[in-house]
Amino acid sequence: MTTIYLTRHGQTEENLMRIFQGHMPGKLTEEGIEQAQNLGKELCDIHLDCILSSDLQRVVDTVSIAMADRNLPWEQNSLLREIDWGSWTGLKIDSVNTKNPPKDAETKEMLYERGRHIVEYIREKYEGKDILVVSHGLINRSIQAHILGVDINELYNIPHMKNAEVRKFIL
Question: Is 82 a catalytic residue?
Answer without folding.
Answer: yes
